[in-house]
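Reopening: Integral membrane protein still failing for me.
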Amino acid sequence: MAEVLTVSFSFPLVFALTFLVGLASSYFIFDVDVLFVAAYFGMSFFTFMLYAIDKNAAENNEWRTPESTLHLFALICGWPGALIAQQILRHKSVKQPFKAILWLTIILNSAVFLSLLTPQGLSCFDHFVYKLGLLVDAIRSTI
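Support: Ran it again with your exact input. Result attached.
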């Protein structure tokens, strides 16, 4: 018999959905770069899928996705998908310190995101990307 999916609208679920709706709206209202919006939606989908794969592996005693990988993808814009997966899939939603580390990644990602909305933060990011490009060019020239 198929398992019935029940979803309760908990704070983490509402928080993640509100962020995604706000982010999508900010594209139209505040002209936020489409790359930011695409990064969050794409990484959230990918992170949700990682949680689903990990839950399936846990239920079948198969190889698991390392928690550090789940946290990494949450940190790089996938945290809304992580929160949604925790609530919908009921996976990694109780275990500590996993939850605490996830919330730290959310705070860190949000701080970086908010700073990128300022001219100074965007300038710093542009400088970082420029330096990263120089590093990549230097590595390529040695190969």
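The CA atoms of residues 85 and 119 lie 34 Å apart. If you still see a failure, please send the error message rather than a screenshot.
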